[in-house]
Amino acid sequence: MNVSRLIPTAAVAGAVALGLTALTACSSSDAADRKNGDKLDVVASFYPMQFLAERIGGDHVSVTTLTKPGVEPHDLELSPRQIGGLTDADYILYLKGIQPAVDDAIAQSGAKDAVDAAKLTTLEKHGTEAGADDHDHEHGAEGDDHGHEHGDEAGGDPHIWLDPVKYAEVAEGVGKSLEKADPDHAADYRKNTRTLVTELNGLDKAFEDGLRNTATKTFITTHSAFGYLAERYGLVQEGIAGVDPEAEPSPARIDEIHTIAKKDRATTVFFETLASDRTAKTLARDTGLRTDVLDPLEGITDKSEGADYTEVMRANLAALQKALGAK
After folding, report:
1. Whole-angstrom Cα Rg for the chain
2. CB within 8 A of 181, min separation 6: which ones?
3. DSSP label of 6
4. Contact yes or no for 283/257 (Cβ under 8 A)
């Protein structure tokens, strides 16, 4: 993980203290409002967690997200008020390993009702973390994401929401945790969870059917976030520069991508909505490939091909079908 992204623990601790001081005047009244109100005060770390909280919580939750639309989640810096607000939340949903600032702030806040989505499914290692240099494929195994350096302390890839099956597992865990946090509305949480899981199962089938027969299995992306998706549907992800969408690839990696694109008949270099497309366009120009968007769904903006998770994932499917030559 890029250490430059990490906020020093001492700084977070100071921000926690400052945030708590800033909120002292309103904390007691806020708590009283929640006690007398119907809605659970939920804090979500970034969009994939927000989507789950809103869909499963429904009318019984009031969801605040720490990462505003258009902000690259990995680079998030929390304000003292945001950090202090973690202690006042009834329920916090986050994904450890994606946002160091959030991980540190939650640890420092001592929040009791914080649910780590990474613990609701099984994280896997992708790319070099899984020993990809020893694979059978000449340059990448199925699901390979070259140079993947992202994850929690155990080295697992945290991009679980890009696999509808794993995301459904997380949804079920979130539903159960909301039932415990707010037993009075447990029946509604169970119903909403079933509805969402059914929707995610349908999305999984759409990907499985849509990517079953393709002219190539290899896709090139600036952001190595699609390891789970590639593994689930038998594809090969070739990341240009690892997990950091803004990172500059090495000359050696550029040469390797040129060779891979020619050998495996790759047609497209994918970039994302929240990062510069400069690297993708440069590589595409040098190799004669097209460029297109493959959205890692870390946030929804006016540039997103869809209004919510499901719509954007279906747009991703269409982009992959076009790039891979689906039949």
Report:
1. 20
2. 40, 90, 91, 113
3. P
4. yes
Q: Which two tokens stand for residue 272?
A: 């994302």
What's the CA gap between 291 and 298, in Å, rounded? Answer: 20
Q: Can you give the pTM of this predicted structure?
A: 0.81
**Amino acid (1-letter code) at residue 11:** A
- The DSSP letter of residue 250 is P
Residues listed for the chain? 327
| Tokens encoding 64 | 């605040």
Q: Which residue has the tokens 């976030």?
A: 225
Q: Which amino acid is at 327?
A: K
CA gap 281, 268 in Å, rounded: 10
Answer left, alpha or beta for residue 234, where phi above 0 means left and psi between -120 and 50 means alpha.
Answer: left
pLDDT 10s per residue in the chain (327 long)?
A: 433 333 343 444 444 444 433 333 333 334 434 443 689 999 999 999 999 999 999 999 999 999 998 888 988 999 999 998 898 899 999 999 999 999 999 998 888 889 999 999 999 987 533 333 333 333 333 444 333 344 444 468 999 999 999 999 999 999 999 999 999 999 999 999 999 999 999 999 999 999 999 999 999 988 789 999 999 999 999 988 665 555 667 788 888 888 998 899 999 989 887 777 777 787 778 778 899 999 999 998 888 888 899 999 999 999 999 999 998
